[in-house]
Amino acid sequence: MLEKTFDPKAAEPRLYAQWEKSGLFQPKTDGAAEAYSIVIPPPNVTGSLHIGHALNNTLQDILARYHRMTGKAVLWLPGTDHAGIATQMVVERKLAAEGLPGRREMGRDAFVEKVWDWKAESGGTIIRQLRRLGASADWSRERFTLDEGLNEAVRKVFVQLYKEGLIYRAKRLVNWDPHFQTAISDLEVEQKEVDGAYWHFAYPLADGVSYQHPVAFDEEGKPTEFETRDYIVVATTRPETMLGDTGVAVHPKDERYAGLVGKEVVLPITGRRVPIVADEYADPTKGSGAVKITPAHDFNDFQVGKRAGLPSLNIMDSLARIIADEVPEIPAEFVGMDRFVARKAIIANAEENGWLKEIEKTKHMVPHGDRSGAVIEPWLTDQWWVDAKTLAQPALKAVQDGETVFEPKSYEKVYFEWLNNIEPWCVSRQLWWGHQIPAWYGPDGEIFVAETEEEARAEAEAKLGAGVELKREEDVLDTWFSSALWPFSTMGWPENTDDLARFYPTSDLVTAADIIFFWVARMMMMGKHFMGAAPFKRVIINGLVRDEKGQKMSKSKGNVIDPLEIVDELGADPLRFTMAILSGTRDIKLSKQRIEGYRNFGTKLWNAARFSQMNECARVEGFDPSTVEQTINRWIRGELAKAERAVSQAILGGRFDDAAGALYRYIWNVFCDWYLELAKPVFNGTDEAAKAETRAMTAWVLDETLKLLHPVMPFITEELWAELGKTGPARESLLIGASWPQLPDSFIDPAAEAEIGWLVDLIGELRGLRAEMNVPPSAKPPLAFVGVDDATKVLVECHRPLILQLARVSEVSLLDAAPAGAVTCVSGGSTVALSLADFIDLGAEKARLNKEIAAFDSDIGHYNKKLGNPNFVSRAAPEVVEEQRQKLADAEAGKAKMQAAIARLEAMA
Q: Residue 314 and residue 460: Cα distance in Å, rounded?
């Protein structure tokens, strides 16, 4: 007999160990089996499991377990990312905490060795946590983006792209982190709102030029008054960059400045002359309509500078201190200043010398390094770049032609938007932890790119002569570069491995929308270029998990749900089921209460299994469900078949919420609430043949139900599979290795469905009526069917015992008219009358209902007042407004229900 409750703490580690030992996480070696493959989005080796990981990996595991049970050779390939900047930061902090020398003191080789030591000791945390979630990945194939095989793939790709002219070294703007002294990707930049200001500076016009500037306007916006100005006003939030200005831009259609285009201004402090240029980047409606252009320190300015032919002058070093290397006019007192110290000094100079016209306080977004917290500086520096635009074309076509599809399809637009406007990809990072770029420099800066130093030296000596001295490029590659090769490098490329032949392209990728740009698109580019095929046939985009109010989870708000704490307290299965059933929206509203509710769902199934054991339901050797005769057994057989189809279609379509919803409705409502309830009279009856059939059918249906639920809730189903397998024929395998149910259409019996459907609707209607009329649970009022046809009379006689028991009525009669004091309703096309006059106080009940209506009226008035307030609707968060609308709808529905009950009472009088 099963224990009273399922104990996940005791069962989950034991069951997971059994799965791993079984070898079923590995793909079948049967060459005839259809292949299904999926690669895990590699989490950072520094990471711990968060709720986003729990969602993403639950969905992947559902796919892997489902396809494994359908007989496919399933490869779910796991691994971790070396996470260059994050890992380097973790180890540097660890060294500092231990009082050891820093990385620069110990040198590159010693530091990298320390990182490998840390990885060996602490780098497997998230992999262990994924196991706790139940992830059935093939751990024997686990990869790491810095392992030797991937190192070889990275080197080969880099060298080939360089030789094809698709990788090059050039001076361009990057996101520069002055703390880590490295370029970082857009994904590693966090925009923060800060208090700042626009400083309005007057730049004097050169050569005595002046112009008439409008200062007053009529109702149509036409100027009516002018003043003579010998300067032009520009506004900036970063005054320090003015030391590197190389132009001022105005809009080509801005009549105020039309006569100034081509003229020059003299920059304060440096005295340099720079031109006024026409460019549509300048917005006539913002500020003065004129903008200073610093191409070396602003991404937009860099583009303006390219269009206008302006030079790009770097005025900062790697620590964001002012330098004069390219702008010798910068006064000596500014050289060496931190950028923010320089900002204060420039503002003070402007104020003192009269060229500060206005300080406009503002809040604005400022980019920060997500790891360092330092303000990011757009910085012009020599870096390695990938010609992403060329590589993007086949990747675009692959989605346009349907080689790869997105679910939901709307994300294809995001993908197209990114690739159609793609910029060169900066792939070099000034770090020590990562794939060191396979490039060597000769004495005069000549570049030799090769997979090994020996090959580079051979090339250099062929060009420059024997004994030439080479220096290795110190930069490493962007982490996303190695991740872009993940679908094929993890399968052994550049070798022609069996895994590549069998499992590439992969079947599905499950990932988040925020890395469509950074990862999905780049995998598509590399897959098409090096493999000739897109790396996956379908990309399933999962939503973002938020709190129950729709707010983003953050530690500062105290609304973070830790998946490991949930697993500790409630088990992995309730968390997994919750992730699946809520996965159909872009913003998933999650609360602990929801997860607790789905723990109750598992408990419901556990109790159903205990009930079946108590009623001697056991698996029977050779049992054939197609031969059952009892109506309830023919009915549940069809319901099971319909549930299987619904679950399979939903999983195959990537609609995990629909799959979980179908499982919930079938298990809770159909199997537990109705089939077992309808089976009770059979178990307690005297018809031994019916009893034996129903016992065997219950055991068979329970087995098939465990199979359906297993991909979503693997632990509790595996435990029940083992426990229920202790009676009857021996199990052939663990549940994870069992075959998915194959249920023919003939299992769906329309006659049984109609008959049981009639009974279920009737009992449901009568139970609802009793609750609505506040009938005491112990009361057993008489029930009458009024003026029914012969077919209904047959159903009534056939199911009289069940109606008496399940509807809790004293008698069931057939009458031509409803008796006095009865409440009537219609079910299955028949009028039924429940005689309640002797069981309820009509006056008191009417008073109770009117009181509830008054309460609903109060709520309705409150919600209508709120929703009728334009300020509330326009200013409140959308989720708050929607919550109020839902509460209004619920109150209106509740009131309507109470009014219907009163109408029934009045009909009884």
A: 32
